[in-house]
Amino acid sequence: MNPPATIAQPLARYAAWRRAGDFIFLSGVIAVEPAQQKIVRGFSDIPDEAADLIGRTGEFSSDYKDGPILAQSWFVLDRIRLTVEAAGGQMSDVFKLVQYFKCLDDFPRYSRVRRLFFPGEPPASTVVEVSGMLPSPDIVIEVEATAYLPLR
Asked: Which CATH number is 62's domain given?
């Protein structure tokens, strides 16, 4: 059984998110739970309902190949969702994403998962391929988000 989901947590001494006026800026989010020192490596590291929703097939070869990007995509976007909600917003308030990939070939699978979190108008988007990400070569995606959330 997976522990309850929490907002994105920093891996070092930096803020997971900051408010600046009417904007919420999230640091880059990766598929890691620092408190448990756990990296999401595949479908078995996310809730069963999410794994089934995003494409777990039950076929080892397919799930082994697609599992890391699909599970990490879901985890990262879910942590962004939880963080934005903790700040008082919702995913529709997110207007900009910057997505970092170790391999741009993963973008189509990530994009399928992203549509689940942004079923309406998608946010503005920048996609970048990078050579590596902290803390491990197992990390295949990092996403930072910006939301517009006016002070009330």
From this structure: 3.30.1330.40
Q: Is the dihedral of CA 68, 99, 24, 136 positive or negative?
A: positive
Distance CA 22, CA 42 (A): 36
Question: Is there a domain that residue 1 lies in?
Answer: no
Q: pLDDT per residue over 91-138, tens digit each?
A: 999 999 999 999 999 999 999 999 999 999 999 999 999 999 988 999
Rounded to whole angstroms, how far apart are CA atoms 144 and 99? Answer: 7
**Count of domains forming the chain:** 1
The pair of three-digit structure tokens given for residue 135, joined into one six-digit string:
């803390």
Rounded to two decimals, the pTM is: 0.91
How many other C-beta atoms can be found within 10 angstroms of the C-beta atom of residue 106?
20
CA angle 120, 69, 46 (to 5 degrees): 85
Structure confidence at residue 11 (pLDDT): 61
Supply the DSSP symbol for 98: E
